């Protein structure tokens, strides 16, 4: 039996504990529901993350292949030269959204996918291999941004599931049993105290009765002695 | 467009000397049968093989700065620049003029690289690494250009030259318009320069230049039509001149399938017909075929008149193709690209 330390076995504490018990049980069932909800949400995000990750890997392989192809066709000298012409670097915008109380990021990328003639280099002096490499890397950046959003959401959900699980377990295996035990302990203590009081009262009552009887007996004795003194004749010599 | 004033040359134009030099230089080119062997070598073996060829000096000189594929790429570019400069030095009169006009594409390349580097904010040394001084602009001038503080300073360095009008199109936001203007200027000059020659082979060289313009425009059409770009934007990116300019210009903005159908019957169609389909994923394959077609056309022309500019053109194209083939093999092997893919890109006579 694990009784909450420093608990005074009083009726007021018992009432307080019973109120806490009710709150803990409601919290426990709510957290359990939250945990289950988060788990469902997590599996949905997990499936999405898996497919996004697969797409990301595919895009990465394709981009590397195309870059290697462009390097082979045009040479790194040309690729580096063209890369310098990049007009605008992509930016990202961070917002947040709420999944069952868990704040997850919403990332929007800007200026990633560009039209061929908006990449900053002249069309005439460059080649299709460079376009293809640039285009596949633009797609890759988009996939990375999407993967970052989904995977961060997944990590946040896992963290929240973990903490919710810890709370549920703490309530289920520690807080509620402790309160239960303490309530039981206080109940027993109070009963014990009651029994103690009864015994004490009984003892007091017995003592009082004994005193009263003694008093009565003393009075009777004195009365008897007085009566015998009045009845007896005087002795003459 | 700027008006190009052609120099006047005395007659007869001296081609015997330069073609003789070119014939001698041609013997140093890597023979066609070496490419399949290079495909089966690893990168260090290729580097060792190149050390036995004309690339030895460059490989030795650059081996302290680069290694592996980087070394081979920079060494081959460096050798290309040296060879082209040598051609310009040994030629006189009209051949020299035409060679320098042809090599101006490297000047354009270098100007574009310097501008891009300045636009990005790269260091002088970094920009210098990517320059190929194979044209008229020498290393000292290019070094001075890279040391300029801003793009405007670089542009000002060309005040009073034909490049000034193209460079003035820089709007401060993007280099694309300016780069296109430089490329258009190059082909404008080339077409006018070749068109002004009266020597034997001049007509065929003009035919080649026009075909090159057509092929470049065709590649632009393939790239932009596939991406669904509007017709007027595509037309802005086409090089004026060439034999088929009007016909190609009309194809701008066409749906891709229709565009492919309208190409049937042209001389270049047979070289791309098997891969040019409506669902083609990689335009770079079509581009490679078209470039190979152009190279083969230059090689075919080079045999027409032995004492003309044509053998020189054939050599310059061969040299550039050789450098490109080596790079494709080495880079392809480094990246682990399939052998068929590399073979498809390598152009052999």
Keywords:
heterodimer; A: 237 residues; mainly alpha; Helix Hairpins; two-stranded antiparallel ribbon; 2 strands; 75% helix; B: 349 residues; 66% helix
Overview of this structure, please?
Chain A is mainly alpha-helical and 237 residues long. Chain A has one domain: Helix Hairpins. In chain A, 75% of the residues lie in helices and 8% in strands. Chain A has helices spanning 11-74, 76-84, 128-231, and strands at residues 91-99, 102-110. Chain A has a two-stranded antiparallel sheet with strand order 1-2. In chain A, strand 1 and strand 2 (102-110) form a beta hairpin. In chain A, 25% of the residues are buried. In chain B, helix 18 (309-335) packs antiparallel against helix 19. The longest helix of chain B has 28 residues, at 93-120. Helices cover 66% and strands 0% of the residues of chain B. Chain B is globular, with a radius of gyration of 21 Å. Chain B has helices at 16-26, 34-39, 43-50, 56-62, 68-90, 93-120, 124-129, 139-146, 151-156, 163-167, 176-195, 202-226, 231-236, 245-250, 256-263, 269-272, 283-301, 309-335, 339-345. Chain B starts with 15 loop residues before the first helix and ends with a helix. Chain B has a domain at 199-349. The chains are: A mainly alpha (237), B mainly alpha (349). At the A-B interface, helix 1, helix 2 and helix 3 of A face helix 5, helix 6, helix 11, helix 12 and helix 17 of B.
Given helix and strand content, the structural type of chain B is mainly alpha
Please tally the helical runs of chain A, counting DSSP H or I stretches of 4 or more residues: 3
User: Radius of gyration of chain B in whole Å, from Cα?
Assistant: 21 Å
Would you report the number of β strands of chain A?
Answer: 2
In the CATH hierarchy, the architecture of chain A is: Orthogonal Bundle
Largest sheet of chain A: 2 strands, antiparallel
Whole-number average pLDDT of chain A? Answer: 88
Helix content of chain A: over 70%
In whole angstroms, the N-to-C terminal distance of chain A is: 88 Å
Tally of DSSP β-strands of chain B: 0
- Unreliable spans of chain A are none
Oligomer: heterodimer
Give the integer mean of the pLDDT values of chain B: 87
- Most extensive interface: A-B, 35 and 56 residues
